Amino acid sequence: MVRTKKIILLSTLYFSQGIPFGFQATALPVYLRSSGVSLSGIGFISALALPWMFKALWAPLVDRYWSDRIGRRKSWLVPMQTLMVATLALSSLADPGEATMTLLALVFVMNLVAATQDIAVDGLAVDILDADELGTGNAAQVVGYKAGMLLGGGIILWLTSFLSWESLFLVMSLAAALPLALLASFKETDSDTGSVRLIDIPGILAAAGRFFASRGSWWAVSLIATYKLGEVMIDVMFKPFLVDSGFSPSQIGLWLGTWGMAASLAGSLSGGFLVKKIGVPRALGIALTLRVVPLVFEWWLTTAQPNASDVITVTMFEHFFGGALTTAMFAFMMSIVDREIGATHYTILASIEVAGKAPGGWISGIAAEASGYGAVFAAGIILSVAVFIPFAMTGKKFQAINVKRS
């Protein structure tokens, strides 16, 4: 498969998955806080993304069952994509002020569908990306996903001044339908899907077990699980902090969800370039280091009344370095995946990534109510610095981790 076609297909699929998460992560907290929902309640909104944490439980089904007539990955991509479009359309009927619980339930369904689709998309990426394409491929992955988040988050918040609630979700639904056109013309081949056409579930689990038994794997798992924990603690409370500091939802949506997301996209592209030029381990180390700097300045904003220019500057840098780090980490994860069980193996690592950072969001609201925003942001910085311990140990073991990649 031609490299350009690979990148376009993958980026479009990841774009559609980012739309519902962008709404949950950026737009929904602002709507809820503006309606008077407590900080602890907003903190637990991240639990709607639980399917992303537990998707490894049904990932073996995606690796095991498919239709040869349709294609190994396409058998899952087409129905999941269709369900996502339908759920977004239904959400247009659930106004947050009148049907809050219905809206939250639909957001949960969106996450369930998107997480299942993500298993197949990740498996497809592992199948079709060669070793020298990891930087570009993972940049497309992260950029596509964050472009979807940009639409579902910042742009949707901005459009609230011009469009009705129903129209906003119809816009997202139509955008999520775009990949269906590409999937209609995409045909998987044996060279795309790798050498393994069929492997039973016990075999899938045995292959995954071999990875976790390999030397150095647990340091890698620790790194994947903790690299975003502190950052998430800060990010989840940063939006309510800005609301409580007197900024409007429109301003927050523009700064964080639009300009900040644009900076994140630029950072993701830069992370992919860095991986391609200097390799995964060095790029990851640089990104981890630079990410800490804007987190310190986010804490600094809590020490005085922030102004617009301070918020915009800190937001741009935080999103840029965070984007670079995400691309570098996903390239690292894909570099250690066994292609024989691509969807399952990568999904396990991705679930570990989600499970590791999710508690940061859950406890952030409770901690902020008890100790204030400043204490929470300081704790997030400390946790982000502590990540260098598993990173240093993983660096020593990187070449020892069992890898099957051509």
Q: Biggest sheet, in brief?
A: none
Shape: globular
Tell me the helix content: over 70%
| Low-pLDDT runs | 402-406
Can you tell me the number of structural domains? 1
Count every helix, treating DSSP H or I runs of 4 or more residues as helices. Answer: 19
Which superfamily, in CATH terms, is the homologous superfamily? MFS general substrate transporter like domains
| Total strands | 0
Q: Which assembly state applies to the chains in this document?
A: single chain
How many whole angstroms does the radius of gyration measure?
A: 20 Å
- From the coordinates shown, what is the CATH architecture? Up-down Bundle
Average of pLDDT: 85
CATH class: Mainly Alpha
What structural class is derived from the secondary structure elements?
mainly alpha
Tell me what the structure shows.
This protein has 406 residues and is mainly α. It has one domain: MFS general substrate transporter like domains (Growth Hormone, Chain: A, Up-down Bundle). It contains 19 helices and no strands. Helix 13 packs across helix 17. The chain is globular.
